[in-house]
Write a structure and sequence with these properties.
The chain has helices at residues 7-19, 22-29, 33-47, 63-90, 109-120, 133-141, 204-217, 230-238, 284-291; strands at 52-54, 59-61, 95-101, 124-130, 147-150, 159-167, 169-174, 194-198, 222-227, 243-247, 258-263, 270-277. It has 292 residues and is of the alpha/beta class. The protein folds into three domains: 7-86, Orthogonal Bundle (Arc Repressor Mutant, subunit A); 93-165 and 272-291, Periplasmic binding protein-like II (D-Maltodextrin-Binding Protein, domain 2, 3-Layer(aba) Sandwich); 169-267, 3-Layer(aba) Sandwich (D-Maltodextrin-Binding Protein, domain 2). It has a five-stranded mixed sheet with strand order 4-3-5-12-6, sandwiched between helices. The chain has a five-stranded mixed sheet with strand order 9-8-10-7-11, with helices on one face. Strand 3, helix 5 (109-120) and strand 4 form a beta-alpha-beta unit. The longest helix has 28 residues, at 63-90. The chain is elongated, with a radius of gyration of 25 Å. It starts with 6 loop residues before the first helix and ends with a helix. The mean pLDDT is 87.
């Protein structure tokens, strides 16, 4: 069986499959609506399948169409990456790697990794983007990123996860707070304080682990603020809006307006893990794994 499908036909199909509207898709593709309809019909005839159910007011993907949308989206991204990699090789580069990371990984882990890795592989490009755990999982599944650094215990079966750093939590207090390392015994001493915590939407599993600390300490915290950035937490603590709990890797020893007390005697620890898509064919990934 011979198919006369061209790359442009795939792009046309995906545009319609995304919007489920021929006119809107045609406008984005800068072609006429009748011309787009003809090309989609040609693609259906060549494949011998019906991709869309066409009604007066709406367009619906068939089961075959839904399957092709998912598979072609992934394969087109792989193809685009192949072309991009060829261009890098032509320009004297050996490849690139796209990182996603939670903010705490940028304090030490990723900078140290990149500096050391760059010395051995100077012709590799790195793209870095701070993302919450959920966005990283989405990015890995869609091949928008190659490697993620997350605080999760479980990931979808298409992904691999490897713990790389297990660390204590730290209490964050205003610098002039009455409590210090010598006086601190348990978190219960702060039961009347307001707490500033990472938003549960940023990482539900991380938030649950922090709440377990309070459960074991015998009280339910007064949560005055939720945020997704450590810098926001520190600014709020500095200005006496409350206290906080963060991973040890987020300790900012240069910030003289807050102080940290390591919670070394509690059972809860937080783990930073490396995550990747087991089907990702980026050859640079194996070099990073070996290096780490």
């Amino acid at each position: 069986m011979s198919y006369q499908i061209e790359l442009r036909h795939i792009r046309y199909f995906l545009a319609v499959a995304k919007d489920l509207h021929f006119r809107k898709a045609a406008e984005k593709l800068f072609i006429s609506q009748p011309g787009l309809s003809r090309r989609i019909k040609q693609m259906e005839d060549d494949l011998g399948v019906v991709l869309f159910e066409r009604h007066n007011r709406k367009v619906i993907l068939t089961k075959a169409g839904e399957y092709l949308k998912e598979e072609l989206t992934l394969n087109l991204k792989n193809l685009e990456h192949t072309f991009y990699h060829a261009k890098l090789l032509n320009d004297g580069k050996k490849g690139d790697l796209k990182f996603g990371y939670v903010g705490s990984a940028m304090q030490d882990m990723i900078p140290n990794l990149l500096i050391a890795f760059k010395k051995e592989h100077p012709n590799i490009l790195f793209n870095l983007k701070e993302m919450d755990n959920h966005k990283q999982i989405e990015g890995l599944l869609s091949y928008d990123i190659d490697l993620g650094f997350v605080r999760l215990d479980r990931v979808p079966k298409e992904l691999e996860i490897k713990p790389i750093l297990k660390e204590n939590f730290c209490l964050v207090l205003p610098y002039d707070h009455i409590l210090n390392k010598e006086d601190f015994q348990t978190l219960y001493q702060l039961k009347k304080e307001s707490f500033i915590l990472f938003d549960p939407k940023y990482s539900a599993t991380y938030f649950e682990k922090v709440m377990q600390i309070f459960d074991d300490s015998g009280f339910t915290p007064i949560v005055s603020h939720n945020t997704i950035h450590a810098s926001s937490i520190y600014k709020l603590v500095e200005n006496n809006f409350g206290v906080s709990i963060v991973p040890k890797s987020l300790m900012d020893i240069n910030n003289k307006k807050v102080k940290f007390i390591e919670l070394a005697n509690i059972k809860q620890k937080t783990t930073l893990s490396m995550v990747w898509n087991k089907h990702n064919r980026n050859p640079i990934l194996n070099r990073v794994f070996d290096f780490i």
